[in-house]
Amino acid sequence: MSEKLYNEIxxxxxxxxxxxxxxxKQKFVTDLGAAYHSIGFVAVKNHGLSDELCTKLYQxxxxxxxxxxxxxxxxxxxxxFGQRGYIGKGKEHAKGRATGDxxxxxxxxQEVVDGDPIKKEYPDNIWPExxxxxxxxxxxxxQTLEKAGRQMLKAIALYLGLEEDYFESRVHNGNxxxxxxxxxxxxxxxxxxxDAVRAAEHGDINLITLLMGASADGLQxxxxxxEWIPITALPEQIVVNVGDxxxxxxxxKLKSTIHRVxxxxxxxxxxxxxxxxxxxxxxxxxxxxxxxxxxxxxxxKQFEDITAGEFLHQRLAEIGLKK
Length: 323
Hints:
Elements: E1 11-13, H1 14-17, H2 22-38, E2 41-45, H3 51-65, H4 69-72, E3 85-87, E4 104-109, H5 134-159, H6 168-171, E5 177-178, E6 181-183, E7 199-202, E8 208-212, E9 219-222, E10 228-230, E11 238-242, H7 244-249, E12 259-261, E13 273-280, H8 308-318
Parallel strand pairs: 1-2
Antiparallel strand pairs: 2-11, 3-4, 4-5, 4-6, 5-13, 6-13, 7-12, 8-11, 8-13, 9-10, 9-12
Helix pairs in contact: 2-5, 3-5
């Protein structure tokens, strides 16, 4: 495969994959695989999220983060290690760093409704009583993004030469997280640490990430030649990128690319930025051992065998959410 350097992330249409036309479906799979092999990111339209739902979710999220800190902190439960509810300002940092990111966020997790015993692994969701319908709106967005993620994973499975439904049982009632993020205003930029940024360079932990509202300035991806390029998406698109679990499972055939959210110019530090990623996780018992068909003489096995649950615990400690 040619090692293409992208100047922007490629755009794809999920309707091609679901069209019933084998040629369109195959082209989607091929183009997705090429992008994920090289830069690890794509922008996707026809993902199922309506403009109305996006608008309602962003309004609910903005209303929550506008609440006083002492109200928001009612929903921060230390013993949950940030798995559900509110996570306060500066609590999370990138792997390998000590300075906290300039953000606060909220975690909405899986609602198991089919009697699956995995329910006991997950804490109950925590809902802010001050924001009307926060639970209904957030869960509808969660389920819509999860459905789109399952479609993306079907295409990934075909690209990898696996059965189309390979990931289905592995992500059913998976440990996925919807994370509304508020990059809060900084009234006195000179008072924050010199190395403090909205989100320091990092790779995502999970299988894939589906990001709503990715067009605000500041999101950048590190190209293979060391160049940082901006991630932009049209209003009807979401950005979908490879996480570290998928990179491990594919022996780095699919790339979990480092990305960051840089600070705006100092005069704009007093403004808020919002984004809402959906981190798609498998069930904790998924075996992330490198796939045999991703290992050969030119690509020897790079990663130790590990389960998704073990890997998640390891990484939560590394980013400061779990002691």
